[in-house]
Queue: 4 jobs
Job 1
Amino acid sequence: MVIKQIKKVSAILSALLAIQVHIRMPNSPLQPEASKPYFLYLLYAALAVFVVSYLLSFFVKPVDKKLESTGPLLAGGVLLLNIVNIVCSKLALLPVLFFPSLDRVFGVYVNDWELLLKCIGSSGKLLLIGFSIGAVIGFGTGILVGFNKKAAYWFNPFVKIIGPIPATSWSPLVLSLFATSYQAAVFMIALSVWFPITVMTSNGIANVQQTYFEVADTLGAGKFWKIFRVGIPAALPSVFLGFFYATTGSFVTLVTAEMFGCKLGIGWYLNWQKSMMLYANVYAGLILLAVLCNLIITLLFKVKDRLLNWQKGVIKW
């Protein structure tokens, strides 16, 4: 019982420690001052959430279980930020040009929020177009290769040669082939999505037990019925793995692709801020990118757990 309570209050204690350190330890004179203590504001907000969650845990059982399991992890995250704050802001042990204070990093979200929202919208549109094209073609190719031996004979060498090459490596070629850099970016994202979905879909179909198809034949099922009602549903776990791999790959390609002539987007923002030597903005963009990628993958896992309830918890995120 005591250990349980320690786990539940660990995040509160960690936040209180970080607040005390931020208030009582002066910033290094080498570190440029932020306009406001934005990191301190973030700590106050986090502390309020932790306290409210702790109080609710006495009345709401799901909150109690969630807080017990995630409390130490949240405490560790706050402790890590506290250490970064001490090293970069309070002691300035690292070059201040490349390692700005957390106040300046989190202040970017307040001062640049309009531009960041536009960048999120632009990157989201580009990612959606490229991902959709790559997913549709990859899923179709995977089905074709998985169910048709002749197609597998001709397509597999192409997939094995072209697929493993990073999509960003094609940038010199695609920039000369497409009329605009935006079209080139869409192509590179689609290519990065196409390969993992094709491979995992075809492998999933190839590993479906033959007895499933034999039973379907016995019941008089036709070819398309066996494909869409037997083969594809049985291969869905592998298909979802392909989508997860494709999501992470698409984000890497997105950032690189937006650096080649795009006029807006998170990748463009990172490249622009880096050229301006504004590393606080660069770190803010990287944090934003990580959060967005995490949210999309979490959403995919929710969809997977909903469609494949019998596999819930087998692969966790």
Job 2
Amino acid sequence: MADKKIKEIISAFFHNDVPDQIQETFEKWMLDPESFQEKNDALESLWKETVDCPCSGEDLPVRPVDSVFGDAAASRSRDRRGRGGRIALWLSTAAAVFFAVLSAVLYVSGRVPDVCLASSEGAKASFTLPDGTKVWLNSGSTLSYSDGLGGGRRVVNLEGEAFFDVEKDPGRPFIVKTDALDITALGTEFTVSAYEGKDIGTYLQEGKVMVTGPRMEDGLVLTPDQAVIFDRTSNRYKVKKVKASNHTAWIREKLDFYNMPLYDIVETLSHWYNADIRCSDPCLAKNINLSLTVRQEPFREIMLAIAELVPYKLETHSENNDTTYITLSKN
């Protein structure tokens, strides 16, 4: 089949809604080894055209990955309106089909591929791993694994932040590897934050995890509502009591705060917006209770809304464009 015709077929599929039966036929055709290189070239061309398009929306992946199988990416894109949302949707589909083709070819050749899951900047994504474990990736995060998570241990590598709801399998521990720490679970719910240049945090919501790394080679066992924070620079860590739900709420479609301390709200918003937000006066922030709902509003709008609710003057300022401080003072 001519290269131009192949590209026309793929482009038409991505730009139009099609019935499930046609979609299944299309995917079978994409996985057919015949004209594989031409299909590959067409998808790469479409990918490049969309990434270069200034109206392509904010959900675009920042780089290709080896395989993308997202539970929520397509449905989230369908809910968006306008040209940017439509392009993001077919690009997401293109990525999934393209890398599914790549994986299929690797399997045919006898090689089990590595899989890399990713979320773009400013977006979140959810995935179900081959063992049944559910994973939510926060903005700009990647998770990779090999061999379909087979073997005696289930090992994944994380860059960024992720929430894990681990499928129980006592005979095969689930291990999250970061560049400095290993977090081992048998069946549990927890968040790991391991962005480059920032402290690594493990926050346990349910079950038990064991954290190993510098200065804790024997392993440190956490119980629910405990966290271990590791300072990359000093290679030191601290264990503290936390409200783990503040660190996992970002996986939901919206945040509902009912009579909650401002301190906890700010901690949750830090994960929701993937930003370092701190209260200059933590003690005062813990004694101010607020009720509000957050969906997809810009951070500035939320701060203006909170400023209207608190009985103090609220100001925000940034330090080195990395940390946003919230200052409360009497009017």
Job 3
Amino acid sequence: MRQLIVGSRKSKLALIQTKWVLAELKKAGIQNPIHIREIETKGDKNLNVSLPKLGGGGVFLEEIEKDLLDERIDFAVHSLKDIPVELPGGLEVTSIPVREDPRDALLNRDGQSLMELPEGAVIGTSSLRRAAQLMRQRPDVQTKWIRGPIDSRIDQMLAGDFDAIVLAMAGLNRLGIGQNFIAECLPSDTFVPAMGQGALAIESREADEEVRGMLMKINDEATEKAVITERAFLSSFDEGEQAPIGGYAYIDEGVIYLHGMVIDAKGQKVVEHEASGKDPMTLAQEVADVLIDRGALDIIAEVKQEMQ
């Protein structure tokens, strides 16, 4: 029986996600011994630099994907929102398990919702998309860059460095921490998540049919269809991964619903559209075309210029 090696970032959340995948594979009947190889990425080494300046979510992948291509590992577990639409040649997203809660959450010490926070409140976030949407709803607050593991961010908030922070519900749920400080789960229709948020992606080599067969046993078709729609929407925008852009799709009775949004860094210019359909690519292009007609590419270019 073939022994397998799975690659994972070293963070507590990444390892929990990887171990969850291994448990799901075991439930699905995979008996192969699987060992975890912990890999430090550029994104993990440079916590003093914002993600957009480092190069976006792809900074968490380079070292792991090199190990995949060099056959030092057999597959890798990622947060899907960290994966660029275009992968290196020879690699593929082989399996997408069932999705966790895709929403963002606002955390603070006093249980205050976004609208209840005092004027001038300082909110910590590492996301341009989140910062822009916070400014859109509360232009009087300040957004301040924060990096590091989830538990470290909560500690910084409790120490008084921030009045509130915004984190993904999925990470809080998987870690089982911070629940007492969740003041508000931000609704996905008014605070649009990142494409793929809450979903995991299992990446492997295209040529490895044996591993593909194993990983497909835990693929969730509804989650896969939804995130394919979201990623197709993202791929319609040049530099989209570096811009405040959100997209959330869900499936209801076989119909895909997609809400797409592009917003400037200050939350003052926003274009958004929601539509439904059966085909992920057609629906994604329809929503993207509406936003492009309304000036989405100009907003993205403006944000990119401000980041330089």
Job 4
Amino acid sequence: MKIKVIMGSTRPSRFSETPTQWIFNELKKQNGVDVEVLDLRDYPMPFFDEAVSPSMKTEPYKHPVVKKWTAKIAEADGFVVVTPEYNHGYPAVLKNAFDYVYPEWNQKAIGFVSYGSVAGARAVEQLRMVAIELQMVPIRAAIHLPPDKWVPVLIGKAPAETLFEAVAVPAQKFIEQLLWWTKALKNARA
């Protein structure tokens, strides 16, 4: 199973590298899983301005970065999105990355790791609706990093291990659900 971990922030001072590396490492421990990080900094796509929706396109995109991004999404069986919450929502760059692709997302599992003022819960709630519109299967479990744990890590007052120990039980349930749905959907697509 090919799982792509999408780093949903491109800010210079982003925190997402820490939880992205952690969930990447946790997924690498699983048997039968090939995991790769997709950093949106490596895919500087213009804001979506195509003449037709990706769900109705009849020819490949011309923009080279969009082609590269679409190919990465196509090769995946499932996804984990690591997202901050900005002003009760998710980053615009992440929405843009979703909007450029359609059939390549379809019938694949997706889970979320989030952080923010309410542990990113509102961003995840909104992203689940986007995923459903893209014919994806958002898993029920999510990993919401509590502010009282991730902020001290961000400012250097606590080691990252304290944060990830606090979410070890939800993380295990998250991984179990993600892999179950990824496998089931991969078999169904075949």
